Amino acid sequence: MSSGSYYVPATSRWPILGSLALGAMMVGIGLKLVFDTGAPLLIIGLLGVISVMGLWFRDVIHESMGGLYDTQMDRSFRWGMGWFIFSEVMFFAAFFGALFYIRTFTIPWLGGEGAKGVSALLWPGFVPQWPLLNPPDAAVSGPTSVLSPWQLPLVNTLILVTSSITLTVAHEALKLGYRQTCRNWLAGTVMLGLCFIVIQGVEYYEAYHHYGITLEAGIFGATFFILTGFHGIHVIIGTLILASMLVRIIKGHFANDHHFGFEASCWYWHFVDVVWVGLFIFVYVF
Fold first, then answer.
1. Nearest to residue 241, comparing CAs of 259, 265, 258?
2. Keywords of this protein's UniProt record, alphabetized (predicted)?
3. What fold, for 124-285?
């Protein structure tokens, strides 16, 4: 296509179907958390999101391989991905902000410290500390103990940091035209992502059954699962994206100097890794 043209895709049903699937999944999650029901809706929504992602990826790949994208489309994709990652930064900033507010202000206030120390009148015997193992309200049972950051969380941190390195090697190999090297290092990155997911599942089992860390275990359990859970979902999505990039590499897709689909997946994965480092420091260590 000419350099002055701009590709306008045909009418697509994927945005509305994706929104419906995502909405169903979110409603299912809400019902599960509040009323301990809604699991079928959650599963249907999750499968719908995965299906829409796969089919939408397929259409975009066909358009790209058909030579329909030019430099203007490339700029549009880069701006779009940049704003998407910015929205993700704000998403996690909200949850980190809630964690910092609770730890810095709310708990000290309930213990009688700070400008609103009068809040201590609610629970006079409350001892402010973090992690909060003894919630002020006796009706809420806190966790029996917390996970050591130097065991499974440290292993997962090393896995994700290593995966960023292997992905960078794969990206540089693609730019230099070493496709087999790119394929091998990218496959290693996907395997590391899968390892992280499995270890996170083991950690959740240990936290829930052996440490008493549940969503009902006071504010510590709630913030722990919200922060690590949403991050885990992002790792799952990122692993699926990288797996699709691996399939495309095997099929001979991407040029040395034109592969923004691959590059965008790298942006996303590195962002997910940076978020985990923040989680490791502020949720597990301090």
1. 265
2. Membrane, Translocase, Transmembrane, Transmembrane helix
3. Four Helix Bundle (Hemerythrin (Met), subunit A) (1.20.120)
188 residue type, one letter: G
Global model pTM greater than 0.90: no
Q: Which two tokens stand for residue 153?
A: 């969380």
Q: Domain map of the chain by residue range?
A: 6-69, 124-285
Alpha helices in the chain (DSSP H): 14-35, 39-65, 71-101, 107-110, 152-176, 179-210, 218-250, 260-279
Please say whether the beta carbons of 91 and 277 come within 8 A.
no
- Helical pair 39-65 and 260-279, crossing angle rounded to 10 deg: 140
Q: What is the pLDDT along the chain (286 residues), one digit of tens a residue?
A: 445 566 677 788 999 999 999 999 999 999 988 888 888 999 999 999 989 988 988 888 888 888 787 788 888 889 999 999 999 999 999 999 999 999 999 999 988 887 787 878 888 888 888 989 888 887 888 898 999 999 999 999 999 999 999 999 999 999 999 999 999 999 999 999 999 999 999 999 999 999 999 988 889 999 999 999 999 999 998 998 999 999 999 999 988 888 898 999 999 999 999 999 999 999 999 8
* CA–CA distance, 103 with 127 (Å, rounded to integer): 13
Category of 229 on φ-ψ map: left (φ > 0), alpha (ψ -120 to 50) or beta: alpha
Whether the CB-CB separation of 162 and 196 falls below 8 Å is answered with no
- CATH code of the domain made up of 6-69: 1.10.287.70
How far CA 120 is from CA of 115, 137, 218, in Å, comes to: 11, 12, 17
What distance in Å separates the CA atoms of residue 130 and residue 138, rounded to the nearest whole number? Answer: 17
77 Cβ partners below 8 Å, 6+ apart?
Answer: 69, 260, 264
